[in-house]
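Reading a protein record of the kind used here takes only a little practice. These numbers are not coordinates but entries in a learned vocabulary of local backbone shapes. Here is one such record, which you should read through line by line.
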Amino acid sequence: MEQVYNLLVDCSCPRDNDHRKESETGIQELRNSDPVCFLYYTMEVLQNDKCKEQARQLAGILFKNTLINATQDPALDNLWQDMSDEQRDLLKRNSLGALCSDNKAIIRAAATAISSICIFEIPAGSWPEVITSLNRTTVNQEENIKYASLLSLAYILEELREGELNKDDLNLIVSGLIESLDKNKESPDLIEQTIKGIFHSMKFCKQYFEKREADIIVNSILLMTKYQSVGVREVAMQCIVEIVRLCYDFIEEFMKDITDVTILATENDEPQVKTQAIDVWSSLAEEEKMRIDNGKSHSNIIRTAFGIIMEMIFSCIQEINLGNIEEDDDQEWGTSVAAGCCLNLISKVVEDDVIEPVTNFAAKNIEEDMKWEQKYCGLLSLGAILEGPDKNKLLEILTPAVPQLIDLLADSNRKVSYTAGWLFSKIAKSNHELITYADNFGRLYDQLINGLRTNNNISANICSIIAELAEAILDRENPIETCILSGVYEELLSVLKDYVLEENSGNTRVAGFSAIFNLLQYAPIDCQETSYNFMNYILDLLEESVKDSEPPSIANQELQCFFLCAVQCILTNIQADLHDDFGVRTIELVQKIFLQRQDVCEEAFLALSAVANKFPQILNHHIDSLGPFLIHGLKCESPGIIRNVCGLISDLCTLVESPIIVQEFKQYMPILLSHMKNPNIGMSVQVIIVSLIGDTFLLTKNQFEPYFEESLIILESAAKACVEIPNCQYLKKYDEIQALVQYQSSLIEAYTCFVQNIRDVNDRCYQCLGTHIYNIYNFLMSTLAPEFDHSIDFLREVGGLVGDIANTFGRNIGMEMSMSNQIMKDDNRLHQLVNILSNYDDTDTKAIADFIVSEVNKIGN
């Protein structure tokens, strides 16, 4: 233990940074050499009241991080599960022993350790006594023991996920916490830990509402919104936020009391409590909006309480929270911002009804003689409602006020002018007709150009206005002939270019480039010649940046990256034919940038991909000289660079069918397969790698044989992983499923390359693919699970590949696949797919259904 303790002391109280790094390295080496012993030693330090406080605190943190494998070290996977019962029991006893301290910092560290053990033990039902023991000591004990027990319960509840706590333990905890609110009410510290425990229990408590047994919980929380401690009142209000979010269907009977406590809080309480009170209504609005969008019934709580809510919002939105009144433009999160967010959500529920009260409020507050705070609130309230009401009604009411709003861009107070800029960026995005009216646009344009040329505090918002306006009124897919920006397009590009060259702040420079990119991406046809000339200018700037052989400064590297993105943008979107010199010059400049930096960058590969699409043969002629940089990019740790290099090589395979790739693909295939086996390489990278593997096979055919079987094994492993439904919260689950669907589509694309072209390859590869066909077919059927909710395009891809499999392997189906025509014919999943495709109102889709039926019926014949 002594060695671990000394390192913990050195790490928590270092002489300098080098000493800290040395101590951290020592700790990591000890942990890696024997993780179980490391857990014992950290627990001994945590328990030992003779050790220094900082070291004991750090011991608790390291115990948890090691146990839950916070660093995602494969060597620590299943660490707790692989320990013996005796080892686990000793650590459990010692962690509870560490709670017996008079020092609250140590109690917190011990509670952290206990909660990390409970992550594994409680779902498995292996430590039932911990809940009983902690619950028993929340009342009728010494203050520190009660504090330790309540804190531990709160931490445990925070760590556990829905479904991991059994009903009996939940009942025991909730009843104990409710009892603690009553018996410990004279101690703010204990009540605060109790209400935090109740807050973290909310995710488990829906059952009480469903059974109409939640009265005592809700009434206890409502009572705590009036408790003497502001911390308790804040958490109690957070509990109400959770209740309305998780139990909307069961809260109508409590709404009068909830409304009363939120009114009281917004009138008289501290800012942090007011903010939570406003969030109650934000959660309700969000829930009702979601139900409206999904056609589900709701209780019209927001419309019923609309007048009361607006009074609270108008009161709270004026409680501005700026860090530095002279310099800060953005508000910090607080009551005013919460009120603005709430108003935005309310407007999406009540729609047109929000217009009158908000425009009346704004009109009173933006008058010329008003204080800056009032103008600020008026602008904030207008910006909050732009997405809710009918656009035409907003246009009718707001159009007369636009000149007055434009003038506020030049207000003498920087907060007002900045917020006016923010408002117009939102108008440009969702209601651009308000400012594209000729008279309004001319007046606004003068303010925009003046703001950019003087580089004042609203320059970043001006750039945002231009970027949003370009995207809103133009169409990248179908460029229009001309628009209101055509007459000022050249001047805008010139002024923005000067702005980004002069601007030193990273965020505002990014805003300037975003405006340039959108102008280039969405350029109307009558501005394309200007874009063409602008590209020449950009290439000149890049040429200038690589004249010095020394590595560029960070600022110049940023400029190079921005300019490369501009080149990619122009090459991708310009309709006119470009001279080949543009392609040659871009490639040569990219090579010079790589050599100057002695490194690669993501933006350069994006520019090369644009060259590949615009000048494929020119890029092919330079592939030899670019090859080392492509391999370097594949080997780097940046997911963005790996993705873009893979995309570029795919372009060379498909657009150019480059013979150089055929000669050199053996240099990159081992790297791709290594990335596919690396658990730390993200799914977004592997999706692109899978596509490249398919494209490479398509181009190289027989020469791909050395990598064929390994590729199939790796893709099969990926296929199994990407049909597993994630077990997580709704929004995260939705995002993860969308990522899995993209991965599935990439795998189907690669498998299609294999199956459709396997007859052009030798018999060994044919036989090898045959041994994997049944698993490929099973993968295809697994993607049809309803959770994935695929598009018809995806279903066509699946159906086409099923037909190809039957066509390619049908006559040998019994040889390699251990699958017969009866397996396919009896598969309800395939029947459902054929039924969907055959009933779809599209000739090509019906043809795929007929193709599947025809080829499946031929299997084995």
Remarks:
- Confidence is low (pLDDT under 50) at residues 728-732, 813-820.
- The radius of gyration is 32 Å.
- DSSP finds 46 helices and no strands in the chain.
